Amino acid sequence: MDIHDISHSNRTVMSSSKRVDSNPGFKKILDAKMDGTSRVLTPSHVDGRAKIIEQGDRITDLLDDYARALADPGRTLKDIAPVVRRIEKETGILEAEADLKLGDDKALGKMVGDLAAMAHVAVFKFNRGDYL
User: Which pTM was predicted?
Assistant: First the structure.
């Protein structure tokens, strides 16, 4: 077996310029897709998203506090009511921020919607008297 013949294969190597020039269709498709999807996030858009995420984090913390308060037999519903009011207020702020700053971010919009629904259900169940 002669290993030295491997490096002397008879393959024809195309230069990169021939490959690009012979098929311009890929470049056209790529440019069209990039033009259609390229969207620069402005600092205000990024700041708006960050504020929405921070607001959502505040609500999840409040919901955790609410769940711990409900599990504590030493707490009365009167003691828990301020947490519920704060959840209600913060959820309203989240929804208002999302309406103003969300844009077309579907994933963040879904997160806001799910979180707001969960908070509204918690407030509704408390107000309805489910924990009497």
Answer: 0.63
